[in-house]
Amino acid sequence: MSDFDKETENFVNWVQKQFSSVSSKFEVADLRKSGEGRGLIATDNIKKGEILFELSRDHILNIDNAALTQLRSENKAELYALNQWQALIACVAYEWFLGEKSKFYHYFNRFHIVASLIMSYSFDVDHPEEIETVEQEDAEEEEVNEKESHETIIMDDHHCEDAHHEINHHHTEDEDDELSVDEDLDEAVDPVYEDTYFKSMVPLADTLNSNTSHFNATLKYEKTKLVMVADKDIPKGEQIFNIYGELPNSEILRKYGYVELPSSKFEFAELLLSSIKVYFEGLFSTKIECIKEPQASHLIECIIETIAESEYLDEEMMRESDSTIISERYEIYANGEVLIDVVLLLQILTSILQAGQSDEKWFKKITKSIERKPSPELLALINRTILKSYQLIERNSFITKSVKDYLEELIKLRLSEYPTHIIDGTYNLPEKAGAFTKKELADVVLFNEAQCLRDVIDGKFPPKNEDGNDRYITIDDDKFLKNILKRKLEQEKSKPAKKHKK
Q1: pLDDT higher for 377 or 1?
Q2: Quick one: pLDDT at residue 120?
Q3: Residue 20, φ and ψ in degrees, nearest 5
Q4: The dihedral of CA 129, 134, 139, 141: what is its sign?
């Protein structure tokens, strides 16, 4: 028997002794040939809702029950004053130091790299008090609604933010971990006592591999225990997958050191606000004769700032007071999925551009002071365009033709920034996981991102709704522009005609 198999056997025996319940319908399998280390394989058909295993909270490792915490009375307070990563690393290091005296010895003995163990296999587990609070709140709500109570408390969206799974088992476990530790350490800078969770090591749960497209099991948090439950029917012979979060390959690689093939279910690329600004500065300065380069820059900044401070958008889009559609980067998802924020931004910029083109004399007048202070007339135009653009897109699901065209041009510019071999058709994705170099991993990430961008210019934008219809209907620009300028035209008509001397 190889050392790998012996370590697996010892670990499985340890699990059987320590856990409250372990199903006999799966086994810990050697998946190194597919580059996945160890994983769980169903040895019998598993039904949706079946419990795969349960473990009490005293069998997960965190500062609440670590040997280091029990070593002396002062340790617990000192650990609580550290941030989550520091506290967990200290606890794990001491367990490692104890060797066979640690109750987690056969759990740790599977691993060979301490940094990989801690950074890649940890979970964020709510305090028992938090679970109890959720139980009480749920019970009160159910009593009001006269609903039956549920035994299992599944964390809501708020708690999921604190309990996203930070585990990894896609490394071959004998390999060095190449994660960027500094970035992950920065994510947990507050002291433990300010948080509502413990960063924890959860035996066996971290043996499940993750797959965003095929995950079929979920770890549920209860007051006294953690329970792994099948999310769907799992046929005999299939691997049991968890999910580490709705992450694209770029984040999976950064956090866990591997990539999913052919892609993550949650891939996206980014369109930068800085690129949008530069692009529209060029449009304003070339399409409107009275707007020169310095003015164009000030005008774009004025429009962006007015959008960011729009109380109308805050109210209509039910945004938080510090939230805005203006962001440094916008996510472009697969299959032409583009956030409404960037669509709305492009519609506003496009419509103001076209308003300037329609009457340059008037536009020159209202933008004359833009380098010092925007005129009331310009601010009125921007705010009316914000209002009408929101109504057009959000309420009526329309966009103008030029918005679609400009979006595609921006996407093409963004694509041109990717390496040539990624966008010229010569690159091919690997067919299966393996011992990839850093460059090979990066190429997979870049290819997936580029594909999201290609989807937009390959006709997948606008995307389809669930009913099969386009998310947005494209309408003529002139029709919408007349709506934008309606008030201006009415004011011009109401002005008395100038009398000319005979």
Answers
A1: 377
A2: 54
A3: -65, -40
A4: positive
